[in-house]
Amino acid sequence: MEKIKLEALKQIDLVNDLVSLENIRIAFLSKKGAVSELMKQLKDMDPSERKSFGEQVNQMKLEIEDALIQKKVVLENIALENKLKQEKLDIHLDQVVLPKGYLHPLIQVIRDVEDFFIGKGFSVAEGPELETDHFNFEMMNLSKGHPARAMQDSFYVDPERLLRTHTSPVQARAMLEAGGQDLAIICPGKVYRRDDDDPTHSHQFMQIEGLFVSDDVNFSHLKGILLEMAKHIFGPERHIRLRPSYFPFTEPSVEVDVSFVKSDGTPIWIEVLGAGMVHPNVLSMANFDPNQKRGFAFGIGVERIAILKYFIDDIRHFYVNDKRFLDQFKGVL
Ligand code: FA5
Question: Is 95 among the domain residues?
């Protein structure tokens, strides 16, 4: 009896599926099963033994039944879980992988120049693209009818308002806001001129204005920071050259060229910006005492920097949104 019981319990323990479990039940508990066979011995037994034998067989039957039921619950749960797993309905849409955007090469150049000047303690200022004649010209020492206005012919909205021809009006706005206090700002932004488009000129382009006003600033500070900027943008082997020039809002004024080696190996200079010491008239119009404060200023052509840095042959590539062109600047900065 004990052998039968142990054998039944062992088989129940090892079984892994419901069909085999049912076969075990049949083998031990059905009418022709091992336990029923034991019961059949009862009728040939001495009545004195019959009772306790019967009780023991019943007890064994109960134990085997109990093990069968417990195992059945376990196997049914496993079967249910497997079924649920198989029938699981995934309602997610397939993942749509969108291409990752990147910055336009001109914005990359602006960010690079901003990084450089922010590192030097400058802050970034902004001004309106639709500017008044007053700020675009008069506050820049270009009174009405000044002949130098012809260098920057523009798009007028009405006689007093125009699309700004340079970022220099931000100098005047920032100085007025500073209320006579020292300041160091740069201002990147779009500017507009009635220029004919060609490989190096556009009617809309970008500039980065720079202005530093303090008690003891002089021309060598201007030269030093521009040289350092050129090396930051183009690499340590670059040099700059300053040529005397004329802007009504700076005195003295210079045009700044950066050294460049053409693809055939010829070294040349290419103009990238205008600069100079802020004209005393510009300082006093913005409520600074020109006997106490001096300043330097510059206006960088962003496209020119990008053209030189990335060897671009036509400025118009920057504006037509040809992905074949733009894709070349993925992750440059
Ligand atoms: C000016 O606009 C002055 N406001 C710069 C300045 C600021 C001088 C502060 C002194 C002090 P200019 O017109 O030279 O200067 O323009 C500056 C730069 O803008 C040029 O060196 C050139 O790189 C770029 N630039 C000028 N015109 C165009 C154009 N049509 N298309 C693309 N870039 C241009």
Answer: no
